[in-house]
Amino acid sequence: MRIRHLVLATADPASLRPFYADALGLPVSDTPTGFIVAVGESAVEFRQANTGTDPFYHVAFSVPGGSIDDAAEWLAVRTDLLTDDDRERFRYEFIGADAIYAADPAGNVLELLARDGRDRPDRPEMVGPDVEDKPFGPASFLDVGEIGIVTEEVCGAASALDDVFDLPGEPNEGGDFAYLGDADGAFVLVAPGRRWYPTDREAAPSPLTAVVEGSATTVSIPEGPVSVVGVDTASSG
Predict the structure, then answer these.
(1) Is the pLDDT of residue 25 over 90?
(2) What is the DSSP letter of 229?
(3) Angle value at C-alpha 158, between 155 and 164, nearest 5 degrees
(4) Is the pTM of this model over 0.85?
(5) Cis link prior to 225 (omega < 30° from 0)?
């Protein structure tokens, strides 16, 4: 499953835009209600949130396997890395990946996720005989690797998503967490109140639309609300 496009809400798009466009140097285009960030082969769209709301999310951007040290060095000069017990780098054996974390000005928990075996982008600026010598930067971003979904019904949401998109993974024994997906993309389902690691901020439902490759079916989750829209790539192109 690949995550093609996310639509997220934010309280102040104008204040958030410079972080992605200037600090991270990612391509940004403006919309009537916010802006769109190009993240490799994916896009993240931020729209003006409803008055009086302050939504926030967990989002992971995929980077090449084995690049986490370079990614950490690059990101640390642009924003503070989030830590846990003084650790800045995290290893997740269950998905074969290394990660680092930061928070954007809106409080979104951002993760750079380097899965073992994921290659560098096949784009003109990242290919050629000297590719290994090219420094980590915005062109190193592959796509959106994870999106967090907050719901009281983790087990029910996991079942609904699996029925449509046939995703590996299952909820934990407590029913407050599920990791569904593969190296191309994943949903991180959590119950409200569970903290978004490695912060102490408790997860809360926020409006979200995710367009993903798969069956041309929409899965709706009331909290947020959340819509996961499948695009059948075989029939669309």
Answers:
(1) yes
(2) E
(3) 140
(4) yes
(5) yes
